[in-house]
């Protein structure tokens, strides 16, 4: 028998400490009122410039002779390849498309520390070429494996050691999460929260914010980047114990049934010659202009690991819409989740918002369920609305209008159509504690609830 | 606001009801002492015969002209294809092998009902051609999608409606679980437990047993089949709240790191011409006799959905060994789990037993960690030992010797080598509540703990 000291399996106090931080509208490091000036200061401190260039102007990137895939000469970073998709239902049953392949698992890491008894989070003012406004708030560390193995020979990633060397802090969570299944082939990143145990060195591009301050910034357009949002979505908030329309086992069973019943065949194919796409000097696109195009940009930056580079980006149409219909059921707010079969998912389906699409792509075909209900909602039904950018390192101006929209029985019945189910925010948050359950758009909306940016108290 | 009645998210009493059933050494339907005679009666009631035949004698199965894959003429059931595998570590870095591909998700369903206040489980005396003794105890329903969509035009699967039509019972769990990653390409089945709400019709090939009775049968060789074991492993036993060496977040983080750090490239390739394998009239095998061979059998059966058929089976060397090293740490029993990168897994690694291999396959290469410790254990260290068959519908005489072996600090240190970690049975059981965490061999061992077949109380 060993005399080793045991730990409690879960840290029961952490949810309460997160709630305290969410209630803190102002922080010890910077006041929320001063934040815009700080961010503007970081913008002025560096030189950023992004320009569209022809594919021929890319440095280190080229279309290979055999497959036509768009790859980097090192074979690292990512590649743009072809995907041939066949699904069993919906208006689009078979198609081919470009897709980003990036098999390495990166780290999205947020560092936490208590100041004056309140948890603060170390956010970075980070330029990504595809971001609206270029500079947004990223988590402390946003590192591909290429980043930290130094493939691009730049400077090291600041604070990375807190996430790779466990003795620097206490890991609150560390969970794989998928990213956009329509644009990435089976991409996952580690989403991590680490509480620093000692003094953390200062850096000018970083600031400590409470969860309440982050919530306020999440109410503004294009300030908090996608990587921050997905990490916050995983915060262990403890969930509500007040019951739900369906017990957890029934939710799990519904996920299992949805996962089993969808047939999705998605095979990587050579990018050259995929049907329905045409390439000119500047873009690989569909003649009908739908969905997205692949383009190239050159980047000049003063505070990135390297000071200049060029790269491909995926530029979607848009802005798209991602919305949860919400209802108070038996006194408890519920979200209407959808089981989404996106071609790039590892495991068939993940749970997404009620509605997730660019309405412009659905001209001439029957719209997805509930889209009209979301688009027609008057302001009295809109509990939250903001425009956020998706991953600015891979997507150009990929903006989504995120909403929570109140619905009633006529708009969103308690017995929803196939592929939809009512869950509480606590049930969704618990599923986000494991990989492959909650898609990245639903995680942005979940982060709005977790932080308090969106509040469901006002529900009738 | 809807007045719908909410459910508690989890049924707190179910774990206690399972514990009561596990404590019941005898049942209301049949006494454990009479069970062997009942099973023998079922054996006598039916005619079963399995014979090896040449591939040319297979009815409906053939090697296709283009790929050489072994397929059924309907394109259903399963196929034997080639897999080309490259991994980043270990003595075997690259190989090719046959693999079973069965993309449809089946149902392994166990029906529960209370008799005299104690939960009983409806077990089936079921013949599978690859089983030792042919007849073993399966769960109530064991159905591929081909079964229940009637591809083979046989009789319907008994009791299937309890698992496909939720109003017949209450779903206690319904979770996808992987099967053998070295023999199946990304195979998953739904593992389900349903509690019947009304009278359940009787059938001669089925019997109701308490969990305590099943535990006693799990102590015997080759009685409880793999499908039963994997379902029992998912029983929500509630776990122990007494703490663990690592908090749950640290276990999750370790899984995430292991999942991220392994590079496994596994691509389906034509079966014809895979390197290292040779096919004669009766077998597709390696000249060195290692790992497994693919063979063909003809089957005559009186109580299956169809009365006769022929099919390929995968016949491994063996028996193999699957063992957990166990220690009492801080007063609480812990299991040493390994992160296993099996080529057929969907998501890189799953948690397996400390040791899982056929020692005969490791002649001439350094043995896997802890194999010698398991093989050298005297009887005073062996807390559980039994021989069980793996899936008899796909594997021929695939037997594994399952063990729990007590270890000490010199044999299994608290700081284990990379790829190993200490978890409590409760932590492992909670992970088994989600897909892709716990492999099928570890689930057999977990079922032994859940049922009480193996007891860790005796640990020093």
Can you give the mean pLDDT of chain A?
93
Shape of chain A: globular
Residue share in β-strands of chain A? 25-35%
Q: Radius of gyration of chain A over alpha carbons? A: 22 Å
- Helical percent range of chain A? 10-25%
CATH topology of the domain at 14-48 and 104-233 in chain A: Nucleoside Triphosphate Pyrophosphohydrolase
Could you give the count of β-strands of chain A? 25
What is the CATH superfamily label of the domain at 14-48 and 104-233 in chain A?
A: EvaA sugar 2,3-dehydratase subunit
Task: Describe the protein's architecture and organization.
The structure is a homodimer of 460-residue chains. By secondary structure, chain A is of the alpha+beta class. Among the domains of chain A are: 14-48 and 104-233, Nucleoside Triphosphate Pyrophosphohydrolase, CATH 3.90.79.40; 248-262 and 319-451, Nucleoside Triphosphate Pyrophosphohydrolase (Alpha-Beta Complex), CATH 3.90.79.40. Chain A is 18% helix and 34% strand. Chain A has 10 helices and 25 strands. In chain A, the strands form 6 sheets. In chain A, strands 6, 7, 8, 9, 10, 12 and 13 form a 7-stranded mixed sheet that branches. In chain A, strands 19, 20, 21, 22, 23, 24 and 25 form a 7-stranded mixed sheet that branches. Chain A has a 4-stranded mixed sheet with strand order 11-5-4-14, with no helix packed on it. In chain A, strand 19 and strand 20 (332-340) form a beta hairpin. In chain A, helix 1 (12-22) packs across helix 5 (211-218). The termini of chain A are far apart. The mean pLDDT of chain A is 93. Chains A and B meet through strand 10, helix 7 and strand 19 of A and strand 10, helix 7 and strand 18 of B.
